[in-house]
Amino acid sequence: MVNLGAIHSIETFGSVDGPGVRFVIFLQGCSMRCKFCHNVDTWKAQTPTTSAHELLKKALRYRSYWGKSGGITVSGGEPLLQIDFLIELFTLAKESGIHTTLDTSGQPFTYDEPYFSKIEALMKVTDLVLLDIKSIDSRAHQDLTGHGNENILSFAWYLDSIHKPVWIRHVLVPGYSEVEDRLVRLADFIDSLANVERVEVLPYHTLGVYKWKELGMPYPFEGVKEPSQEMIEEAKQILRTSENR
Q1: Which of 42, 91, 117, 178 is the most exposed place for a label (fewest CB within 10 A)?
Q2: How many domains does the chain have?
Q3: Looking at the domain assignment, is residue 75 inside a domain?
Q4: Tens-digit pLDDT profile for residues 22-72
C-alpha cells in the first residue's frame, strides 16, 4: 500500500533544522494549539496527495548542496500524526544513504499499540530527533498548547533509552517560559538524559501573527513582546546551550 502525505510546504535550503544544509518538509496537521504558533496555517488536517517516492525524488535534486552533514528534515505541523507516511519516506531516504531528522513536539507519543510499534519502526530509520519542549511545567504546557506534557516527557525518556541522538528546543516566551524556576527544572530534566547533543533556545517572535489575522483568528499573545537579549543569554546559561555546554 502506498502511503500518501499531506504536505504544507517545502524549504529547499534549510539551515536551522538540523545539521548542515537540509531539505525541510513541513507536513500539514497538528493537534496542539500553541498560543505563539507561527505556522497556524499548518493546524488543519488536509487530504494527503503526495507519495514518499515523489517527495524523495524532489529532494534528491538538491543532494549536491547537502555536503557530508546535510539531509532531509521533516517538520510540521506535527509529523508524528502522519507516521505511516513518515516511516516510508525515511526508509526510502536511508536506502539512499540520506541523513534523516525528525522535528517534533512529541505530543502524539504513546506506548499504546499499534502506535508504539510504529514509533519503534520510525526510530530505526531516524538519525536525529529535534524535540521541542514547550514547558517543563504541565499546567503551563496545558495553558500554552492545550495539552499536558506527560507523554512528551515520556517520549524524551524513551529516546534516551534507545540512545537516539536528540537536540532539545525550547521557545522562550516572556512571562511564560522564561520563568527562572521553570528553566532550572527544564535544565535538570535535560541533564537527566544521556542522549542530548544540543540545546537550542528559540526566542519568541511575532513574524507569524499575520497568519492568524488572515485566518480570522484572534492572536492570543497580542502585546507580548519578544525577549530581550539579556533574557535570551540568561536562558542559554541556565539550559547550557550548545555554546555553554
Answers
A1: 117
A2: 1
A3: yes
A4: 999 999 999 999 999 989 999 999 999 999 999 999 999 999 999 999 999
